Every structure is written in structure tokens, then in C-alpha cells.
Amino acid sequence: MITNARVLALGRDRYGTPRTPPLTARGRWQFAWDRASGIRPGERYGVVRLNAHTYPWSGAYGTALGNRLLRRLHTGDRIVVAGPQGQRLCYRVVKRVRVRPGGWLHGYYSNSGPSRLAILVCSGRRRGPGDWSHRTIWFAKPVVRS
Known about the structure:
Blueprint: E1 7-10, E2 31-34, E3 47-52, H1 65-72, E4 78-82, E5 88-99, E6 116-128, E7 131-142
Parallel strand pairs: 1-2, 3-6
Antiparallel strand pairs: 2-3, 4-5, 5-7, 6-7
């Protein structure tokens, strides 16, 4: 599936929107983490927010991490997050939703409630550079050892 994708700790833009990875050959295969939220994997509450780029399906610009997620990440799949010292946390995808931009991203910006991981990518029809008809969000919850 997707292995060893680097996570960049990024801030937010002037509108308070989490920044995305750079538009570079490397950036297309990286996640951006909303560092400004202060919510890290393994915390008891809140949503760890990640995002990644999607490139046009025509293939003229190649592909990106978001494209691969849209094709291959499904409800029930496992996500493993590794820390800098080798620590690992496992999450299970429990929900995949598709919303229109500017619509309510219910749960994505939650700073309370149970611990979750959320990944957001652009999806649907590309109307122009950076302008897509939808956003797809996967929500995952920690896998508790039994």
C-alpha cells in the first residue's frame, strides 16, 4: 500500500487552514501534519490532522499520495504511524467521507472527543489548479492491544 511516507510538521496559513506539503517531486509523496493543533498521535483526545496532495487523473503531472489513498485506502484498513525513535502506533480506518469544499468537515477539526487520526485529500473533479469538487477524509481510531 503506502510505506514510509514522510510526515512534515507544518503550521497554518493566514486563514487558519492547515498547510499542505510542498508542490515538489518529494512533496507529492508526503503528508502534512497540522502542528498548530498541538494534537499528536497517541494523545487521549482530539484528531490528528494529516493531508496530502492529489494530482490530476490524466497523468500529465504524474501521480501523488492522495491518488494512491483514494484508490487503495478503505474502511477496515490499518495505518501504522512511526515516531522518530521507532515507536509505532496502529490505527484502523473506521470511516471514509466525501464532502464539498467549504462544507462542514464534521469531526476533522475536533480538539476534543476520543483520539482519532484523520487524513484529508482533494478528490472528485479537478476544475483547475488547486480547485477540486470534493474532499475525501478517512477517520481512523487507535487499535487497542488486547
